[in-house]
Amino acid sequence: MTNMKKTLGNILIYFMVAIILIFALFPLWWIANISFKTSEEALVIPPKLIYEPTLKNYKEVLFGVEREDNEGRWVPSTKGFMKQVGNSLVVSLTATFVAMLAGIPAAYALSKFKFKKKQNISFFVLSTRFVPPIVIVIPLFVAFRKLGLMDTKLGLIILYVFANLSLVIWMMKGFFDEMPNELAESARVDGCGQFGALFKIAVPVTLHGIAASAILVMINCWNEFLFAVLFTAKNAKTVTLAVMGYVTVREVAWSNMAAAGILITIPVLIFTIISQKQLVQGLTAGAVKG
Amino acid sequence: MKKRLVALFLAVIFCLSLITGCGGGDTPGADAPASDAPTAPEASSEQDPATLTEKDYWRQCEGEEIIFATYVGGEADYVDSLLSEFYDLTGINVTIEQYPEDQLYQKVQIDTVSGTGSIDCFTMDMMRMPEFASSGYLTKVQGYIDNPQFTDKEWYQPDDILAGPLSTAKYNGELYGIPYTGETNILMYRKDLLEAAGCQVPTNFDELWDVASKIHSKETAGIALRGQRGSGMNIYTWTQFFRGFGGEFFVDFPNDMTPTVNTPEAIEATKYYAEILQNYGPQGVANWTNMEVYTGQASGKVAMTMDANAFAAIIEDENTSKTRGLWGCAMVPGGKGGSWPAIYSHTMCINEFSQSKDAAWLFVQWVTSPEMTLKRGLKTGVPARASSWEAPEMKEQLSYICDGTYTDVCLESLQKADASYRPIFPNWNEMGDILGIAVQDVIAGGSTAEEALNKAQADIETMLKQKGYLS
Amino acid sequence: MSLSKRVGAWLEKRYIGCFLAPALCIMGAFALYITVALIYLSLCSWNTTSPAPSFIGISNYLNILKDTVFWKSLGRTMIFVVCTVTGEIVLGFIVAYALNRKIRGLGVIRTLVIVPMAVTPVVAAMFWKIMYDPSLGPINYFLSLLGIRGPEWLGSTSTALISVLIVNIWEWMPFSFLTITAGLNALPKDAYEAAMIDGATKFQTLFKLTIPMLKQVLLTLILLRTIDAMKAFDLVFTMTRGGPGESTQLLPYYIYLKGFQWFDLGYAAALSLVLLLICNYGFKFFINKTGVKVFYD
């Protein structure tokens, strides 16, 4: 009897899981589908579920289109997006590195020490996350012009560091909170100073948390659109821009855009999957304890 | 103490930036051989080799570098591919920056309001041009055209530029740019479906309704028009009906700026627009942009449209369209207020704050010259010069569109199209967007035409009062 | 004593400052500059009729008070935020709770559930838009195969906001799922055993035990997600432009319209500051009221 009930329960669970999975995966499946279709067939309803898949879109996206091919029709981008991939990599990696470098000590201090105005500082850090990006664009634009930071990777890196610092501090503080105070104390007794305690003890102990924060920041930078579009032009263009470049005044190259979308999703997906355990820990480190 | 740390920190960033090569950009064409003698490009030498090689005005800005910002697309890629010719001709280094269209104007806007002038020239939506012109952000170009130091009129043939598009580049009678493209709306219809239903091509709104009702089916909607709100979105196509039913935007533009968007004509037009879409339009049309309209055409979901001519090339393209070869085109139908083919143009403007205005003008001149306009037109199908539309190459190249009737219909439509289609004034975008909200609301069934337009009228009046157009 | 050692010792004494300085300098510089610039701009008229910022005092703020579109957008934003945060967390909780047991393929299923989080938001929005389309998209087509006549989704004033909500929930439900899963895993097992012995039903354990013990996790989630939801712009921008009518016009999009479409930069700056203040005080209130352990010890 209970066995029956259990099986029934399991069936129900599986049914629910199936629905959730369809909801979660359908869009990506559909995008992938389009990416293997010719543009003629991309958006035909009823959709052809059995078709001859083509890699043409991927080839065009990665390596560009021969100019001779586009006789009489408009091909959105003729250059492929390898350069933008490179830009995005450099920008997200560097921004993540700098944000971690600045964020970790701050998080450590907020977690382990008592000092004046700590609450105010904490709230200030958090409040930089409240700022809707659209709000700060105009003042920043003026400043970037003056400093010659327009369309440079450095400019984007600075923006992304700012945009992600509070996330780093937020997450890392949670990890440091979890770390027993005695650990750091014992290090200091052993003759390490506060710096030693941070770098020799606290950082190694919270490596999984650092990884999780770093990955989140990197994903944020990789996917960012608004800053990228307004503060870059040609040299520092990022992948999201390259993908949206398939929407032109005269045409939306659905199948090319789908291929590009899939390509830029893959690295993020891999990272997310590999690090999901750490991500989980990182996101909740502070809260779970409470 | 803190200062030192900051300095250290900045140093780290700086080093990082060196390592990663931040800010480094390759300058295209920098290593191209700089020829001593001015050489005209092949293109212009066909026109008049003598005038060009003799004129040394082309080389007066040698060595300068300019940035041209434009919307993403094959057109920009194409111009990009010919930049070496321009470099050989002038010694000017042009960099093309491409943006999605919305972001292009944001970009230009923040560049001009901050007065930095880093983008030397750009393409501008004709309806946005007045904002920029009235603020003094755009260079007046008539002086350049009239100055033989800068323009060889015989070669440039300014009179060849179509009057409609040219008038869209004017604000308060001053010319602020040169049309980069000349676009209009045409009626596109599925020949096979019209024939099967025994219909003639509609020439007025009654016939249009009749045809739409007859060819409408579950699989293929009778007609599709833009539904999504926006001064350049649903209002762009809605105005054909608004004006066609005899509606006017103002009591007497630009002298009496009292809006008249809730007149009986306006309500009738909006009702018609919404009802024809509700009855014979595709499902979900209230959120349709031009993108869905042509995608619907290409995939066989739509039988008739009154949208931009530029899309005809995609719809008849063998690589992108399932319904290629099935389309015919004609002038847009009209009503008691006449027939109002839309007019749209991207205007090529020069930034008033640019350090290299002369060089920018040479570039504008080159890009909009008869030869280049034709070359670009062959790619896009929307040149702004009469000579391009009449050129045999053009007819030949575009003969696959609507059985070769495309070029004639477009030229006729462009010549008939009037720049006053939508009122050209600095706050048009706000006004058009308010109207767009109303029209979309009616299509989506949120309110009746009367309610929506009364509200729009009130909102527009408030806005115009705030901006000082009305007392 | 060598110089480097002396510098080291000097630094060591001021370790808290040293730890905080880099981060606070970066954030402080940005925040200060942005705030000052915004306050200045919000007191100016800077639009098509006055191309250079000219000082007009607080009249932008007075206009905001009278601006019905602003109040409506604000109300809509609140509805949006409440619905999306609730939806994400409830759905995330249900999935996490359902998967918090030993079933076959658990690892794979968990991985698949978090996939939407990895898709670039703008790309996802682009494709959701066309997927929703009743004529061109697959959703209504597949629904019709099941005998369901799908709604007009983004094309109707009554369903547009819900449709945008669904996409936002789709994208962020995995985040709640991940967090809640972690929270569930960290719960002490003995409490459950005790409850079992007392003969508590599943529902009782869920509401009397699990949810109260997850309070901190849930509050943190609510805070984090609310912060992001207040900024929602990309979805509206890509999918609806605020339409049909004004049915999906959220405050950030209204700011964009005013500033970047209608060129009213002074007014947009004032709106921005108002939004900023609402967020600041709203979140402060939330943190104090709920006692969510964010940065306070």
Automatic annotation (TrEMBL), chain B:
Name of the protein described by the UniProt record: Sugar ABC transporter substrate-binding protein
Q: Bias regions of kind Low complexity — which residues?
A: 29-46
Q: Which domain of life is it from?
A: Bacteria
Organism of provenance = Youxingia wuxianensis
Record keywords, A-Z? Signal
Q: Where is the signal peptide?
A: 1-24
Disordered: where is this region? Answer: 29-52
Pfam families per the UniProt record, alphabetical? SBP_bac_1
TrEMBL record, chain C:
- Give UniProt keywords alphabetically: Cell membrane, Membrane, Transmembrane, Transmembrane helix, Transport
Q: Which GO terms describe its biological process?
A: transmembrane transport
Cell compartment(s), UniProt? Cell membrane
Could you tell me which residue ranges the ABC transmembrane type-1 domain spans? Answer: 74-286
Q: Write down the SUPFAM superfamilies for this protein, in alphabetical order.
A: MetI-like
Q: Which Gene3D superfamilies does the UniProt entry name for this protein?
A: MetI-like
PROSITE patterns in alphabetical order: ABC_TM1
Instruction: Give the way it sits in the membrane.
Output: Multi-pass membrane protein
GO CC annotation terms, alphabetical: plasma membrane
InterPro entries xrefs: MetI-like, MetI-like_sf
**One short Pfam family name for this protein?**
BPD_transp_1
> Where do the TM regions start and end?
20-43, 78-99, 111-132, 260-283
Which family is annotated? Belongs to the binding-protein-dependent transport system permease family.
Q: Can you say what this protein is called?
A: Sugar ABC transporter permease
